[in-house]
Amino acid sequence: MAMTSSQVKREQQNSMTLTAAAAGPGTGTGWPRRNSQNSVPATPAPATPIYPSAALNRIINLYPLTNYIFGTKEPLFEKDPSVPARFQRMRDEFEKIGMRRSVEGILLVHEHGLPHVLLLQLGTTFFKLPGGELNPGEDEVDGLKRLLTETLGRLDGVKQDWVVEDIIGNWWRPNFEPPQYPYIPSHITKPKEHKRLFLVQLQEKALFAVPKNYKLVAAPLFELYDNAQGYGPIISSLAQALCRFQFIYM
């Protein structure tokens, strides 16, 4: 027998009521569901942990370039006469003692209210950070202090006080070739060199003795930034590596 529209509507309402009753108390078909006395209370989400170190404000004092005196001393020559000779020595040492470890120091000053990095310049186009190779088993910080003293230390017997601060970079050389990367490529299991960069807090005043075959230049960060063609990938990345520090211009 045909049903009127009102009868169809009442039939649908009765069907929904029976379905809800069969499902039991505390349930429903709508969203959001309301809590009932028999429902299990929701477990609160764990609070997000607060890490004090994440908000650590690292302050570095920068002193004017004019605070420092630059003298000269005897030339400091590289161990290897050419780039091929350098990689051949690295290959020979790798077979005996394994991966080469090297360290370099970031020495900062300011001029005209802008941060500058002290770089060693050899010739007209080659720039490098002060540092070098570690001896087998040598501590990184002790080795960096030794290398800084050999490169820039005074000749009058006064001990230079090098304050080595944060590690600001790690670079790896995967093969006996020039390219270096701030990570170990996935297919490399035995990198040939690991270079670690340290920030060095300079004293308010100091005297540096620069080898005669080098010039010590102060390069502004804005000139280094994104300038791998002029300074290489490591030095040109220093602006990004140092951006987490707050510089105080003394």
UniProtKB/TrEMBL annotation:
Main localisation: cytoplasm
GO MF annotations, alphabetized: mRNA binding
Keywords noted in UniProt: Cytoplasm, mRNA processing, Nucleus, RNA-binding
Coiled-coil regions listed: none
GO-annotated biological processes: mRNA 3'-end processing
GO cellular component: cytoplasm; mRNA cleavage factor complex
Domain Nudix hydrolase: 99-224
CDD domains: NUDIX_Cfim25_Nudt21
Positions of the UniProt region annotated as Disordered: 21-47
Compartments (UniProt record): Cytoplasm; Nucleus
Listed PANTHER family: PRE-MRNA CLEAVAGE FACTOR IM, 25KD SUBUNIT
Family: Belongs to the Nudix hydrolase family. CPSF5 subfamily.
Protein name: Cleavage and polyadenylation specificity factor subunit 5
Native species: Phaedon cochleariae (Mustard beetle)
Lineage, top ranks: Eukaryota, Metazoa, Ecdysozoa, Arthropoda, Hexapoda
